[in-house]
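User: Can you recover a sequence for this backbone? Please restate the input before giving your answer.

Assistant: Of course. Working from this structure:
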C-alpha cells in the first residue's frame, strides 16, 4: 500500500497535470479503486503502486484528449448504464434530446421501430427501456459497434434485434412505423474532426461526404421506401445543417417537418411524416 491518501493524490494531480476538471480526476481514481464518491471522501482510501501507475496512465490518456468514457469504458445515457470502447461514438446529451422527442411523439402502443447506425445501442436501447412493447431493430455497418450494442443489451436486460446492414438496403419496403438515426454528419474537411474529443472517435461514426449530408440524404431517400405510409423519420444533424435537412426531407416526400433545438439552443433534430 502507498501511504498517500487519495485526497492528497487528487490535489497533487490537479496541480501537476493538464486536466482542469477535478471531476475527471476523481472519476479515474474511483474507476481504478472500484469505489464510489462517498467512499472516496469518507474513507480517503490509500492505494497500491499498481493502482497509482494505472491512474497515472489513464490521466495521461485524458491529457491527450481521449474522452473519459473510453478510459472508464462507461457512460450514463438517458436511463441506461452503457459499456463504451473506442469502436463506438461516445453518446452525447444532444442525442438524449432526440430520444426525448421520439418519446414525446408516441404512446406505448406496439410499433416497428428502426435505430439506424446504433453504435453503442444508445438510442434503440433507451427506447426499448421506455417502451417495452415496441419492436426495435438496431443496425450498424460496423460489426464492432454491434458487439458493443449487444453487450449493452445484456447489461441493461433489454431485447432488440441487432442487424449488420449498410443503411437501409436489406429491409422490406413499407415496414417500419418510425425510423430514428444519429448518422455521421461532419464534413471531412471540417477542422472539428481534429479537435481533442473527436480525434479519438471512429471516423466512420463522424464523417459523411457531400458537406456532411451524404448519409442524411441516403437515409431520407431509402427511408421513404421502408417506412409505412404516414410513418415518421427522426434525424439528428449538425448545428448549421437545419435548412438543408428540412429541404432533403421535403424532397423525399416528408411533410409536417419540425426542427428541435438541443440543450445549447442549436437546431439539432429534424422530424417529418411520410405523406
Ligand atoms: C454518429 S454515430 C451514432 C451512434 C449512436 N447511434 C449514438 O447516437 O451514439 C453514427 C453510427 O452510424 C454508423 N454508420 C456509418 N455508416 C453506416 C452505414 N452505411 N450503415 C449503417 N450504419 C452506419 C457508424 O458505425 C456509427 O455507429
Amino acid at each position: 500500500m502507498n501511504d498517500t491518501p487519495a485526497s492528497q493524490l487528487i490535489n497533487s494531480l490537479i496541480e501537476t497535470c493538464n486536466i482542469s476538471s477535478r471531476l475527471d480526476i476523481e472519476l479515474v481514481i474511483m474507476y481504478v479503486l472500484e469505489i464510489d464518491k462517498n467512499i472516496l471522501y469518507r474513507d480517503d482510501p490509500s492505494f497500491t503502486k499498481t493502482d497509482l501507475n494505472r491512474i497515472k496512465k489513464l490521466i495521461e490518456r485524458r491529457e491527450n484528449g481521449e474522452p473519459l468514457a473510453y478510459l472508464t469504458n462507461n457512460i450514463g445515457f438517458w436511463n441506461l448504464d452503457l459499456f463504451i470502447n473506442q469502436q463506438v461514438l461516445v453518446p452525447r446529451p444532444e442525442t438524449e434530446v432526440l430520444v426525448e422527442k421520439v418519446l414525446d411523439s408516441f404512446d406505448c402502443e406496439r410499433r416497428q421501430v428502426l435505430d439506424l447506425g446504433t453504435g453503442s445501442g444508445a438510442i434503440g436501447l433507451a427506447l426499448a427501456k421506455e417502451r417495452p412493447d415496441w419492436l426495435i431493430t438496431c443496425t450498424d455497418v460496423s460489426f464492432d459497434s454491434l458487439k458493443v450494442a449487444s453487450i449493452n443489451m445484456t447489461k441493461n436486460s433489454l431485447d432488440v434485434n441487432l442487424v449488420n446492414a449498410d443503411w437501409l438496403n436489406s429491409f422490406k419496403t413499407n415496414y417500419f412505423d418510425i425510423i430514428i438515426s444519429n448518422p455521421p454528419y461532419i464534413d471531412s474537411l471540417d477542422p472539428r474532426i481534429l479537435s481533442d474529443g473527436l480525434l479519438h472517435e471512429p471516423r466512420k461514426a463522424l464523417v459523411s461526404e457531400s458537406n456532411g449530408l451524404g448519409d442524411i440524404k441516403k437515409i431520407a431517400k431509402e427511408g421513404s421506401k421502408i417506412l409505412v405510409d404516414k410513418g415518421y423519420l427522426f434525424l439528428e444533424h449538425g448545428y448549421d445543417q437545419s435548412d438543408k435537412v428540412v429541404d432533403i426531407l421535403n424532397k423525399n416526400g416528408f411533410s409536417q417537418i419540425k426542427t428541435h433545438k438541443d440543450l445549447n439552443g442549436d437546431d439539432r433534430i429534424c422530424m417529418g411524416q411520410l405523406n
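That completes the design. The chain has two domains: 6-64, 87-274.
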